[in-house]
Amino acid sequence: MPLQQQAATAHTDVIIVGAGISGIGAAYYLQRDQPEKSYTILEAREASGGTWDLFRYPGIRSDSDLHTFGYEFKPWVDSEAIAGADRILAYLRKTAAEHGIDSKIRYQHKVCSAAWSSADARWTVEVERADTGERTSMTCNWIFAAAGYYRYDEGFTPKFKGREDFRGQVIHPQHWPEDLDYAGKRVLVIGSGATAVTLVPALARQAAHVTMLQRTPTYVMSLPSKDAVANGLRRLLPERWAFALTRRKNIAISSAVWRFCQKYPKMARRFIRHFNRKALPEGYPVDEHFNPPYNPWDQRLCAVPDGDLFRAISKGKASVVTDHIEAFTDKGVTLKSGRELEADIIVTATGLNLLVFGGIKLTVDGQPVDYSEKVAFKGMMLDGVPNLAFAVGYTNSSWTLKIGLLCEHFCRLLAHMDDHGFSTCTPELPSKDMKTRPLLDFGAGYVKRSIDSLPRQGEGWPWVMSMDYKHDKTVLRKGQIADPHLRFDSVKAHKTPVADSGDKAA
Predict the structure, then answer these.
(1) Are strands 456-457 and 105-107 parallel, antiparallel or unpaired?
(2) Residue 60: alpha-carbon gap to chain centroid
(3) Residues in Cβ contact with 86 at an 8 Å cutoff, skipping those fewer than 6 apart
(4) pLDDT tens track, the chain, 506 positions
(5) How many CA atoms lie within 13 A of 462 on its CB side?
(6) What is the pTM of this model?
(7) Hey, what domains does the chain have and what are their CATH numbers?
(8) For residues 134 and 4, is the Cβ–Cβ distance under 8 A?
(9) Exposed / middle / buried, residue 112 (Cβ in 10 Å: 0-12, 13-18, 19+)
(10) 132 and 378 in contact (C-beta within 8 Å)?
């Protein structure tokens, strides 16, 4: 169907891009703290839930406890603190339904571009309908980008020599076939990150054998799937009290563990190795397969609920091989060591492709915005880009802890602008040659591959991408909105009819 272009007829105060955990959270805080503001959520896919609806591979779950990964305003009451995607998705959709957020979502509406006009103090957003190919436009005062930072339509798979020679199936976890039959088959999982360590024990329940092939080991820690303290508190206290106490406990524990790893990396390495050795069979080569060359939390630690990965290895249902791939063969892969691994199915759990703000092309007064040249302000705005906020969570803790604080700060910013009659808000660098560094100080391969396309961060607040919940709780929840590097202006905007946010067929 040829693309059609319609005149801009609908206006809303805030357009939220993405109906995942961040977008639903942003909508809740807007309704709670800025009830007079109109908003619309534009979701490119046909369903809400983001990551938790997209990924369908066996065993998919959060590796953060749901008392902190869930919303502060919505208690997690399931007995399992480390939960699967189905329970997380149900939690998100129930939250959206309870607060009427689901009626504000326009599905299959992909934001292609957005153009800022300083004269009008508003964005014109170009949207493509995935089901019809039709193009429409909307205007808004603010854009809140809640689309995460990776591509939803494709994952990362390296080029493997001889891949076309393999006679079995090659699958990326991001595109898992619903009808895949792996029962009684030999499965080779390439990778060692969170996806791989989740897949291996899940596949091992039905597969003949699962092999995890990794180039470099990853830190893996066993965590109980059920939080005994949380479940005990729920029996003694009202639901919200029990949730609040559990959440505070888990935040304190995770922060303490991260700080300990940062301050005493050698000791942290020894502790992790000790627990891994106890969980694995006697004589198992722990240092070969579970002793990374980097320090703990230089990359994210992988959590395995109730040690399921170690149990699968101990039962002989799974194994780990640390080596490099030489080439694919008709039966599997050959390694640089000369060893050959045979498989019926190969899963390339080799990572993600990053994509800033869902690939939205921005212009400010006709000038294209190059994300790689921008610096993040308070971890939620970009220098020189007016009325644009974005949500990126923690990499060293539960993602949603940061999202909640950013959303609260965003609502406080809107209130400040209303109180003073401002219509635009733009971060400005103290100097063009300000020293910067990568946005994400994180050693994961998917970050390193895309680091040159991402915005930057500075050396200190407010230009630093803080990963410290205690610090952020103070500055984002209670700190001043006005800042020497934040320029506010007043522009009398034209009036436009407000969009009917509940019209999903618009």
Answers:
(1) unpaired
(2) 14
(3) none
(4) 333 334 445 899 999 999 999 999 999 999 999 999 999 999 999 999 999 999 999 999 998 999 999 999 999 999 999 999 999 999 999 999 999 999 999 999 999 999 999 999 999 999 999 888 899 999 999 999 998 877 777 778 889 999 999 999 999 999 999 899 999 999 999 999 999 999 999 999 999 999 999 999 999 999 999 999 999 999 999 999 999 999 999 999 999 999 999 999 999 999 999 999 999 999 999 999 999 999 998 888 899 999 999 999 999 999 999 999 999 999 999 999 999 999 999 999 998 878 888 889 999 999 999 999 999 999 999 999 999 999 999 988 899 999 999 999 999 999 999 999 999 999 999 998 899 998 877 656 666 676 778 899 998 999 999 989 999 999 999 999 999 999 999 986 444 444 444 443 33
(5) 21
(6) 0.92
(7) 10-152+353-489 (3.50.50.60), 157-228+267-350 (3.50.50.60)
(8) yes
(9) middle
(10) no
Report the chain's terminal Cα–Cα distance, integer Å: 17
What length is written for the chain? 506
* The Cα angle at residue 13 between residues 128 and 32, in degrees rounded to 5: 115
The CA distance from 219 to 21, in Å, is 26
Beta-strand pair 376-377/381-382: antiparallel
- Distances 360 to 17, 44, 52, 234 between C-alpha atoms, Å: 10, 12, 22, 44
Q: Are strands 135-145 and 10-17 parallel, antiparallel or unpaired?
A: parallel
Which backbone phi and psi does 438 adopt, to 5 degrees?
Answer: -55, 150
Cis status, amide bond into 386, omega within 30 of 0: no
Residues with Cβ within 8 Å of 173's Cβ and at least 6 positions away in sequence, in order, are 55, 57, 155, 195, 199, 347, 348, 349
Tokens of 265: 């990396």
